[in-house]
Amino acid sequence: MLSKAIGSRIQILRMRKKLTQVELAKLAKVHRSYLAAVETGDRNISLESLDKIIHALDMDYDNFFKDLIIN
Question: What predicted TM-score, i.e. pTM, was given to this entire model?
Answer without folding.
Answer: 0.93
